[in-house]
Amino acid sequence: MAFRLRLFLEKFKIRSVVLNAELPQNSQLHILEEFNAGLFGILIVTDDNQTKEKDHTIRESQVQSRSTKKKFQQNLDAKFGVVIGIDFKNVFTVINFDMPRSPAGYVHRIGRTGRGRNTGTAVSLITLVLLCHLP
Length: 135
Description:
Layout: H1 2-11, E1 16-19, H2 25-36, E2 42-46, E3 55-59, H3 66-74, E4 93-96, H4 103-110, E5 121-124, H5 128-133
Parallel strand pairs: 1-2, 4-5
Antiparallel strand pairs: 2-3, 3-4
């Protein structure tokens, strides 16, 4: 799903990149560095490796230098598949293209936006079929 979304955005000349736990850690770090350098406006992240890909989009985040890279390498979250311990800053929007299976997974996702005194928006796109299967 994440790669299909990336290809869809590419058709509209919207630069995006996919980050998921299946990528080697060095690749994940490289993607974050490129994203933070402004090479991509949208970061598509899959965060649940126990089910099919669960995607959300993070815009305009920044990841801090070496200490964060070290945390990144040490704190891969096996439950959600994407790192914990990285303080994504300036995340204004999280879009759930597919819902997590647990409330904890949902909170993990939307917790990336609106940190501190900042406001943020979380949008979840669901179908009636999916709505019937939510916990």
